[in-house]
Amino acid sequence: MSCTKVMICGRISSSWLLKCSPQRLGRDLHDGAKTAEDAMNANLQRRSGNLSVDSDFYNLLTGSYARLVGASLVPEKASPDWLYRQARFVVVAHNNDPDPRFIYANRAAQACFEYSWDEFTSLPSRLSAEGPDRGERQQLLDAVARNGFMSGYQGLRIAKSGRRFRINDGIVWQLIDEVGGWHGQAATFSSWNDAWAI
Fold first, then answer.
1. Beta strands in 23-161 (DSSP E)
2. pTM for this structure?
3. Lower CB density within 10 Å: C or N end of the chain?
4. Could you give the domains of the chain?
5. What is the 3-state secondary structure (H, E, C) of 113-143?
6. CB atoms near residue 120 (< 10 Å)
7. d(CA 26, CA 55)
């Protein structure tokens, strides 16, 4: 298992502001957001109805992964559409609400967990594990919050149909933007086995 500490920087990067829809950020700052981080959170919250191919969210997913894990989540020429529709590995993300809700699940995740986009993005992420396995899942999420990411994760999950499966060699990381704003957590894995086959 490999971990790294996260260094959070409080400075606002002008390049980040330019990448995050300047018109929207300006409106959000004018509408009461106190900082660019607040404006970005408001922007993601407003658009979280469908982040499937959203370029700002894609940049948050892939950028935070690269900064924390030290590797690329996607091939060099990949796009938001490629990650959502064509990637053969699962990517899911939840927001930073007190009871986090999924805000992203690519097609590989939808097939694995047997939920549509609309079902997935209305699901509290804790329900991806059965009751007895939720304590172990929460310990993982707490460790990720402390350390920035964790790799080599294995855990039992449940699909919509009740099918149980074990994630193998997963990576879970914090969704932290370039200025240190925290937006939730994400996970990826490309290997899983049905529980009866373990």
1. 90-94, 102-105, 149-158
2. 0.76
3. N
4. 12-47 (no CATH), 51-197 (3.30.450.20)
5. HCCCHHHHCCCEHHHHCCHHHHHHHHHHHHH
6. 22
7. 18
Cβ atoms of 165 and 178 within 8 Å: the answer is: no
pLDDT digits (tens, 9 = 90+) for 143-155: 888 999 999 999 8
Residue 24 structure tokens: 């929207």
Cβ–Cβ under 8 Å, residues 133 and 156: yes
pLDDT in tens, 96-124: 999 999 999 999 999 999 999 999 999 99
Rounded to the nearest 5 percent, the helix, strand and coil shares of the chain are 40, 25, 35
Strand-strand pairing, 182-189 and 164-176: antiparallel
156: Cα separation from own chain's centroid: 18
